[in-house]
Design brief:
The structure holds 2 protein chains of 2 kinds. Helices cover 54% and strands 2% of the residues of chain A. By secondary structure, chain A is mostly helical. The chains are: A mainly alpha, B mainly alpha. The interface between A and B is large, with 88 and 70 residues. Chain B: Belongs to the complex I subunit 4L family.
Chain lengths: 263, 99
């Protein structure tokens, strides 16, 4: 057994040290989730909150739940979040202006009220007896104890939950299934479209990004013969995200040659 | 240190999550805040399980995790579907019933 903790009620020093280091970090990360603009940053802060919670579980003799927390939450659920973010989210940064007037002050007041109520409630509540701790319940190991409960008292909920999981998986598949309304254009049709279309400008394909001999990264638009940048040479995703570099410095006539002349 | 400190932490996390659900408008961030609230509840369950010397609380927390996983799967599928039809993951944009 992991011996991080526990003469319950008054916990021992190592656990207290861990708690007072990790708890502020957890709260800070949770606050950060509210305040950061980009959804990806929120996701990373969320993952750190979940890892910290796993530490708390393990410190509280819930070894199995701690491991499951890491595997299921930080492993599977957060990956799913990031996956969806990548699918959905090039422009998924929130504007933090409020659309409903007065929503934010009301929300914060309500939260302070709720939090204060709960905290004062917890402060006044007493158990009426000393806390017990899980030594006897975990005598055969945490996993064994949980398994005994799961497969005796909780067999029926366990089965129902498995049905729920299957239903959820099927539901997600049905929801995410994309039905094609039109047939996929064949290569022949695409070719016809390219050469018989309105303009022949892109007949030879779109220009590649980068400025020859100056800067050939994918986020720099190519320069057309007249020196103007070709916006369609850069991936639309980069453009939507605002990551396309300005080409001003690379344009003809604006190249700084003074450094060479001085020598 | 008292074991009840975990309960205070749980209350704090739950409150932060609740504010996030109301204030943020990106559907994915709202979803993450819901996850935060579920996790805070789990922390309370685990702490009470320890205070009472009884594993039932941990079993309930385990079930909560499973249900949360289901919820994430279905919820994210809905977000993807909404995004496909309206090119936006903002909860303000999905206001068909208003008009």
């Amino acid at each position: 057994m992991i011996d991080l903790a526990l003469a319950v009620g008054q916990t021992q020093t190592p656990e207290a040290v861990m708690f007072w280091i990790l708890a502020p970090l957890t709260v800070a990360a949770a606050f950060g989730m509210l305040l950061v603009k980009k959804a990806v940053h929120s996701a990373i802060l969320m993952a750190s909150v979940m890892i910290n919670l796993a530490f708390f579980y393990i410190a509280q003799d819930a070894l199995f739940l701690g491991i499951v927390q890491i595997v299921v939450y930080t492993g599977a659920v957060m990956m799913l979040f990031l996956f969806i973010l990548m699918l959905v989210g090039v422009d998924s940064s929130d504007s933090l202006t409020e659309t409903i007037t007065g929503l934010r002050p009301i929300a914060i007041t309500a939260a302070v009220g709720f939090g204060g109520l709960m905290v004062s409630l917890l402060g006044r509540a007493t158990l009426g007896r000393p806390a017990i701790g899980l030594e006897s319940a975990n005598a055969n190991g945490n996993v064994k104890g949980l398994a005994q409960l799961l497969f005796s008292t909780y067999v029926w909920p366990f089965e129902v939950v498995s049905a729920l999981l299957i239903t959820a998986a099927l539901g997600a598949m049905v929801l995410a299934h994309h039905q094609r309304i039109q047939t996929r254009p064949t290569q022949r049709e695409l070719s016809t479209q390219r050469f018989r279309g309105i303009s022949l400008a892109n007949a030879a394909g779109l220009p590649a990004p980068g400025v020859f001999a100056r800067h050939n990264a994918v986020d720099v638009p190519a320069l057309l013969p007249d020196g103007s940048p070709a916006a369609n040479s850069v991936n639309a995703t980069l453009e939507a995200r605002g990551d396309m570099l300005a080409t001003g410095v690379f344009e003809l006539g604006k190249i700084d040659t003074s450094a060479g002349e001085e020598k | 240190m008292d074991a009840a400190n975990y309960l205070y932490l749980s209350v704090l996390l739950f409150t932060i999550g609740a504010v996030g659900v109301v204030v943020r408008r990106n559907a994915i961030v709202v979803f993450m805040c819901i996850e935060l609230m579920l996790n805070a509840a789990n922390l309370a369950f685990v702490t009470f399980s320890r205070i009472n010397g009884d594993l039932n609380g941990q079993v309930v927390a385990f079930f909560t995790m499973v249900v949360a996983a289901c919820e994430v799967v279905v919820g994210l599928a809905i977000i993807v579907t909404i995004y496909r039809s309206r090119r936006s993951a903002s909860v303000d944009d999905a206001s068909l019933l208003k008009r």
